[in-house]
Amino acid sequence: MKTSTTLRFLLAGFVGVTALARAAAGQPAPKNVDVVFSHPEKFTDVKENSMDFENERGGANVFPRLQELVQNQAAPLLPAGQKLTVTFTDIDLAGDFEPWRGPQFDDIRIVKDIYIPRITLSFTVTDADGKVVKQGDRRLVDLAFQTRITRAFANDPLRYEKDMLTDWIHDEFRKQG
Questions:
Q1: What is the mean pLDDT of the chain?
Q2: CA angle in degrees (0–180, nearest 5) for 141-53-60
């Protein structure tokens, strides 16, 4: 295993444990990271569905989990005084629903290599004075999502998206020096 892969694995585990400890202690989310879901009704996935009685496909289930991940992963990487705003503009989860399989499969997401996860987002980092330090648009795609070794999210239905976001956050905001 490469050193950078090992380091990412350990860092992801540490951040995950830190997030759990913060949640258990009732600590609030970091204030230096805002997450926005812009026009979620237009997202490829994560749409509200009247037949989804447990809201497993909807934003009430997915958005808070992605928001928490972004906040907990990005906050420690930002220099003091900086603020990050991440705006999700599209989410296409790994897998898809295959209605032709019959009604018993209506609520089952089939994960195959042809249904790759994709996330489109924009971000802005500002300093304490509100001056833009860094900004950009990113389209995250993981063509090899089924061949990766998932880190801290092995049993999470959003593990592919979380892995992709974690990689982006650490590549984009890694502290220099």
A1: 77
A2: 50
The whole-angstrom separation of Cα 100 and Cα 9 is 39
Higher-confidence position of 96 and 27: 96
Least confident of 96-105, 107-116, 147-156, 161-170: 96-105
**Tens digit of each residue's pLDDT (9 = 90 or more) over 33-58:** 999 999 998 998 876 554 544 445 56
Would you kindly state where each structural domain of the chain is located, as residue ranges?
A: 3-173
Q: How many helices (H) and strands (E) does the chain have?
A: 3, 6
Higher pLDDT, 131 or 16: 131
Nearest CA to 12 out of 176, 159, 121 is that of 159
Q: Which amino acid appears at position 86 of this protein?
A: V
Positive or negative, the CA dihedral 96, 102, 108, 113 is negative
Count the neighbouring beta carbons within 10 Å of the beta carbon of residue 176.
Answer: 5
Distance CA 18, CA 145 (A): 25
